[in-house]
Design brief:
The chain is 45% helix and 9% strand. It has 253 residues and is α/β, with parallel strands linked by helices.
Amino acid sequence: MNPSDPPIFILGANRSGTTLLRLILNAHSRIAIPDEVGYFEKVYKHFTPSWRVPGLSKKRYAHHVDRAIDRYFSHLDGIDHEALKARIVQTEPRDWRQPYKMALEAWAHRQGKPRWGEKTPANLFYVDVIVDMFPAARFVYLARDPRDGVRSMQDTEFFPDDVVLNALSRRKHAEVALRLLRRHVPPAQWTAVRYEDLVTDPEQAARGLCAFLDEPYEPAMLAYHRDAENYLNDEAARTYNATATRPITTARL
């Protein structure tokens, strides 16, 4: 990975349009952002006292790599996962970053792209760790009117059917996310985008994002829907993320 191509992290509460934004950026000829990984929320408890010092024997580290690739990166198609595991174990340093970094680099390489990104909503609670791992990373925080966000949660089966719980969750995501971003990430390395702006004037929003990411704008980004199903799991494309497989619309504002 070229140091001039730092990774991109899309942050935001669930049902904020983060999948739509991921697909738009993934349609860029230089950027590869796969479906959600969930690495940090699952292994964060092991980062103590530092992600740099796992304190594992080579055998236990190999076990961690084996589980991590099978559990969090198995959906990254086109990669020889067994060869990837062997390569990670043999690469120094053997820390908690290496499996994550090398898996996403491998997938970007498989897509023929030099720059990778990641979008897992819960990552917004771990920006302090992420920016420590990737000091030059760029962060894009997607905000959406909380009333629409909660309504979308109400309509999605894997969220509780309780408007109060969903509203409290929404508030926590917004407050904690902004506090962590402001505390840990240099102002020049993160930006906020409103979902409402993204769908009302997608070209302007995409151009602004490209400028922030130091990438040229490409009209193909707004044609993401043509192959969106290739970058979503079958259930998501069929149900809760079905709108992301169609052209941008303001219908859900």
